[in-house]
Amino acid sequence: MLRMLRVGIRHAVWMMALCGVLLWAQDKGSNGSKSQDQPKQSQSGGAAPAAGKKESEPKRVTGSDGKTYIVRETPFGVVKVPETPAKAEKDDENEPPPDLKVREVGDSIEFQRMTPFVPVKWTKKKTELNELERRAWEREQRRAEEAAKKSKKEDQ
User: Fold this and answer.
1) Which residues pair with 71 in a beta bridge?
2) Which of 23, 50, 134, 138 could form a disulfide with 75 if both were Cys (CB 3.0 to 4.6 A apart)?
3) Do 44 and 51 meet the contact criterion of CB atoms below 8 Å apart?
4) Span 7-46, pLDDT tens digits
5) HSE on the CB side for 7, CA within 13 Å?
6) What is the pLDDT of residues 40-86, one digit of tens each?
7) Do the bridges between strand 119-125 and strand 108-114 make them parallel or antiparallel, or are there none, so unpaired?
8) Which contacts qualify for 50-56: CB closer than 8 Å, 24 or more apart?
9) What is the rounded (10 degree) CA torsion for 138, 141, 147, 148?
């Protein structure tokens, strides 16, 4: 019984291989005899017809509501995106994140920033701080001075 099953599977595999070869030969032989009415299929398989084209330059359009939009033509259609103003100030790049905590430990500064899983801590000497860390330390000093002034006013 097992032998008959093996023979049956073997015959099925050979028949599929033969059908594949015949289909390949038929397709290869009929490429030159296509009529002019039929459009050529792309060589890339299932890719969009415009996939090889370069995207057009974006255009700025003002809508009826007064907002400015950027319109681009992509291979998948026209995309209309509201224009956002660019950051005018470069100082915001060097601004320390609000969740960065700073603590002075002797002649070093300890930094702590929360991440999704664990807080990240690092320590640097005051003379080795980069621009971002220096600004965070100055921000923390200002906060401490303001808190001291506020507590003095409350005491009086």
Assistant:
1) 59, 80
2) 50
3) yes
4) 788 888 888 888 877 887 777 766 555 544 555 554 545 5
5) 4
6) 554 545 555 555 556 568 888 888 888 899 999 989 999 999 988 76
7) antiparallel
8) 50/75, 51/75
9) -140
